Amino acid sequence: MSVIKAALLGFGTVGEGVYTAIHSHQQQLNELLGVRVEIVAVLIRDKNKKRDIESNILVTTDFEEILNIRDLDVVFEAIVGEEPGYTYLKQAIDKGIHVITANKVMFAKYGQELIHKAKQRNVKLAFEATTAGGVPIIRTIQRLLQVNRITKVQGILNGTSNFILTKMRENKLSFEAALHLAQQKGYAEADPTNDISGKDAFCKLMILSQLVFGEQPCWSEVKIEGITSISQQQIEEKEHQGQRYKHIAEIYKEGKLIKASVKPIIVDSNHPLYWIEGVENAIALEASLVGNITLQGPGAGKMPTASAMIEDFAEIVQHQQLQEKIPALQM
Amino acid sequence: MSVIKAALLGFGTVGEGVYTAIHSHQQQLNELLGVRVEIVAVLIRDKNKKRDIESNILVTTDFEEILNIRDLDVVFEAIVGEEPGYTYLKQAIDKGIHVITANKVMFAKYGQELIHKAKQRNVKLAFEATTAGGVPIIRTIQRLLQVNRITKVQGILNGTSNFILTKMRENKLSFEAALHLAQQKGYAEADPTNDISGKDAFCKLMILSQLVFGEQPCWSEVKIEGITSISQQQIEEKEHQGQRYKHIAEIYKEGKLIKASVKPIIVDSNHPLYWIEGVENAIALEASLVGNITLQGPGAGKMPTASAMIEDFAEIVQHQQLQEKIPALQM
Question: Which Pfam family name is an example for this entry (chains A, B) (predicted)?
């Protein structure tokens, strides 16, 4: 059985999730792809931290060492922030290594350039995990709605914000108390700025815009408003009218112009995102043939995000096999 | 530009939808696939009925005439019932013609045999439109969740039943009045038996079972209960307790045994299908890595069902092109 060699860049929550998933689903991968998947290296930042990684795997802080691995097929990138992720992925692509990324901040900014580079180099670049965690929105748009013209996307793309708004309504909590609860439950970082300011949702929206419309709006012209200005009292008032505040990232086209915004929107029960509660993410699409469809699921978390990366991985391997005329892809 | 020749089997609501969609999305198809799609023939039942079909297209009641078309690439089957759909598709596959079907009754029974036949003959057989209309549940399972082990599927798979239950609750209608409203709106047939008895949902559930578990349970052992036994009073009582009746088709495995049922289930607001209202369909999946995801959208209707068939079509053409090493499939 042939072997696929993979390296993990980053061993935080998501990187560890990929590590676990590849081990727990090795049989599934064998049967599906007819290959054995081997994690040969893990890139880490802190050499002193104790990690549960098998001893035959290269654990290094030096990306060069990973680039120099012979016949490395694919890297799973789960680093946070623009750098060093961007530089590493450029280098990997240059070396002909397939790339699977979960790094939304980096990808919102450099995605298009990396996609272009990957095409030139004939390697695959997959990014399902950058947007809405385990909800397979990227590949639904890429693969399942290719003929449909998508005219509008609305999403709850930040689980932390949605959790806070849900708890403010359900439990009549103040913003601060709801945020504290989110932190206690591990849904919000110690510094929750990116989540509650709308910046996190904005990155994901830009990735969706690139995918759906082939371009992004000018970033400085996109209204980004977080959830901090909403009071519990406002939420309660709206609830009495059968309405809810939802923090919605939205894109659509007006003529040739992409209109994008990230902000709280008051919706009633006819709206597909009214019902999305807690840390869930959901995306409602408007498309020319199918009409409206909504996808809902876990927007973050160790295994859902790992799931997105592993499924990307399976597709890449299948695509390679088909190109090499190995008859492993069957309908 | 090369031409793909297609025939439509059936020109009812769905067949006409495919016809319309291919015309309205010809440019999209050109750009995506680099081909021109030509409907060369339409199989009809009643020669005397007036139809809006271009005069250069063969319109016939004789399937032999369609089989004899030179270089026919694909048939879209939108006939109702086991026969003659089954026989036609067998013959088409034997002739090396790709098949896209929307025929759930036929496919629930003969799907596995046809899939097997298609593999042997190296043609593609696609059936997204058989289950949940425009909701891309089949290809989500086939393509996007290949590594995940799906452990449970719950679906609202019949829009008519869901519409009736919704209206009985929302508008405090009797079953009969809600059914009458569904008929007035064109959501229910003159004879609604298959919808309200659960038989329609059962067919779709069997298709999902085959897809997810590779087999179907013994049909006679599946409990199938429709919605006719539920009274408006029962619905109202449950509503006061924050609960709803939903007509849910469900499969999961208990050891090696597939457990399947189609029946009204009382759910509360924590259940992902509690929120699915009106004619919408939705499917909630439980999977080993991603956890729970839910897909929601139009379960029937002219353009949503046509959408499913056209998207199947695009995938088939792309797959062929990749096999023929035409570099049209890009990530």
Answer: NAD_binding_3
